[in-house]
Amino acid sequence: MGQVSYNHLIDLNRYSTNQWNDMLRLAGEIMRNPRIYENSCGGKIMGTMFYEPSTRTQMSFQSAMLRLGGGTIGFVNPSVNSSVAKGENLKDTAKVISGYCDIAVIRHNLEGAALAAAINADCPIINAGDGGHLHPTQTLTDLMTLKEEKGKLSGLSVGVCGDLKHGRTVHSLIKALSCYKNNRFVLISTDSLRIPEYIVKLLEDKCADYIEISSLDEAFLNYDLDVLYMTRIQRERFESQHEYKNQADKFILNVKKMKKAPEKMIVLHPLPRINEIDIEVDSDPRALYFKQANYGMYIRMALILQTINYQLNPDNIPLLTGEHNSGLECRNMKCITRTEVYLPKSFKKESGDFICEYCEEKVKAIPHRSGVQSR
Ligand code: NCD
Prior knowledge:
Blueprint: H1 17-32, E1 45-50, H2 56-67, E2 71-76, H3 78-81, H4 90-100, E3 103-108, H5 113-119, E4 125-130, H6 136-150, E5 157-161, H7 168-177, E6 184-188, H8 197-205, E7 209-213, H9 216-222, E8 227-230, H10 241-247, H11 255-260, E9 266-268, H12 289-308, H13 336-339, E10 347-350, E11 353-356, E12 362-363
Parallel strand pairs: 1-2, 1-3, 3-4, 5-6, 5-8, 6-7, 8-9
Antiparallel strand pairs: 10-11, 11-12
Helix pairs in contact: 1-6, 1-12, 2-12, 4-5, 6-7, 6-12
């Protein structure tokens, strides 16, 4: 099922750490010698499909392609500016746009949307964020920042703080960093915004060192952090404003707190920031989030270049590998299969549980209804 010949980037973990390392090297080389690459994508077109708001991801992708000599087409706000406003489904939009481009980037509010687009696309699809699920190109940005600023991707004590439940950047980052040796994860959140179960399972399967705590001070005191990755509380992913307000502003990094933090600890944030980092922290030399956003453009240049030149080889495993005819439906209301109902359902069986391949949620085994019986 699905296109196996395109080197889509849906989940970084479909590629090897060697391939990520090659991309990081290329990004560093482009950053230091941009002139050499200024025409390397001449005549190529990148399409951008942004169903959700974006500043950095969208513009860094666009500037990356322009700096490589290519062109860009695309939409933002599709419910106003595209045929999505007329009710077009994702399958048709992805099919048509991918016929116009050499590479297409999609951001969507539903989990598994990039995978759904890739199944139906005629060019490589890059996941620029699928709901609260994954955000692999932000992770490449984060890996580049760590590589450039810390000189390594292993043996790091990594604090991650904020909305660990809905924060797709966090999920992708932990999945990636757990593939390098001896990283420790200090997961700082309220009880309601703890990391999803499938990420905990992944950490346990890899025997990774992790701890869940609820205090920044404790993290500074006991875990000798090399990095603190702050995140926004994801207002748009809460069931109600009331629930959001209960969680907002629980962790705020300010100058006073920074005094207790290790000297070597850099502060990252995928941005946008709301209140979680006080503006006064910006002048602390450890605050690297704006530099991080800048690295994002170079790593996206490397990604575009490698994708277009077919240097990024996929593992050649089909996009969907699970059981297709199990009769199950995903119960996660934020899963793309709930709205784009024509999508082939696909579940992986893991220790007796069924895992939806689009959103990675565990599914209770309820058979789907084949139709209403007439009496
Ligand atoms: C993040 C995102 O969209 O998930 N932003 C980004 O891409 N740099 C983080 C966020 O929105 O909080």
